[in-house]
Amino acid sequence: MTHSMRTDTYSPHFGEGGGWRDNATRYALLPLRIFLGVTFIYAGLDKLTDSAFMKDSGAGSIGDMMRAVRDSSAIPALVDLSLKSPVGFGYAIAFGELAVGIGTLLGLLARLAALGGALISLSLWLTVSWASDPYYYGNDLAYLMAWTPLVLAGAPLLSLDAALRSRRRQRSGGYR
User: Fold this and answer.
1) 3-state DSSP call for residue 128?
2) What phi and psi values does residue 95 have, to the nearest 5 degrees?
3) Tell me, what DSSP letter sits at residue 2?
4) Which tens digit of pLDDT belongs to each residue from 55-103?
5) Are the beta carbons of 66 and 82 closer than 8 angstroms?
6) Which of 58, 69, 93, 110 is the S-S candidate for 155 at Cβ 3.0 to 4.6 Å?
7) Judging by beta carbons within 10 Å of its beta carbon (0-12, 13-18, 19+), is residue 7 exposed, middle or buried?
8) Which residues contact 109 (CB under 8 A, 6 or more apart)?
9) 75-81: long-range pairs with CB below 8 Å, 24+
10) If DSSP codes are grouped into helix, strand and coil, which group holds residue 19?
């Protein structure tokens, strides 16, 4: 019995035709991009519109949440830093989530947006969801892993990055 490896399953140029496998490969990250973009936009808007969240203390406030997780977090000093200005930290997270979500959804500076999403997820995993037992109950680790392919690949299709790259190629005579 002989074994062979297919070498024709990936097309290096996104503009080329191909079968359904080539199309599936090209568009594989699009559902992830849409999910993460919409989710982070929603999370940012949810924080900004929740009057209880953007307070130093009280039920549902960012301040009380951070005080509750301080002793169980992996990096208590990070929580202490947020507690110096809980409302400012809340706004920073909310606007960061909005920027990441919009950048990811539109595919504008997609790798940078994905890196921002990964860093937000990492910081939340190390603080808020660190004590989740078992670890897979905490969703921030899963979000961190979901951002990784987008950090590596960016948004090569259906994105402003791709449109800008194409425009630069046209202006430079196709040599980029």
Assistant:
1) coil
2) -70, -30
3) -
4) 999 999 999 999 999 999 999 999 999 999 999 999 999 999 999 999 9
5) yes
6) 110
7) exposed
8) 103, 161
9) 75/126, 75/127, 78/123, 78/126, 78/127, 79/127
10) coil
Give 113's contacts (C-beta < 8 A, 6+ positions apart).
99, 100, 102, 103, 104, 150
**Cis peptide preceding 134, ω within 30 of 0:** yes
Residue with the two structure tokens 């989740």: 132
What is the value of pTM for the model shown? 0.84
Amino acid 100 reads V
Neighbours of 105 (CB within 10 A): 21
Q: For 110-138, what is each residue's pLDDT tens digit? A: 999 999 999 999 999 999 999 998 888 88
Rounded to 5 degrees, what are φ and ψ at 9? -85, -15
Q: 46-80: string of b/e by CB count within 10 Å (b at 16+)?
A: ebbeeeebbbeeeeebbbbbbbebbeebeeeeebe
* Tokens 């039920």 sit on residue: 59
Residue with tokens 């559902």: 31
Structure tokens at 104: 């990811």
User: What is the number of other CB atoms lying within 10 angstroms of the CB of residue 97?
Assistant: 23
As a whole number of angstroms, the distance between CA 35 and CA 42 comes to 11
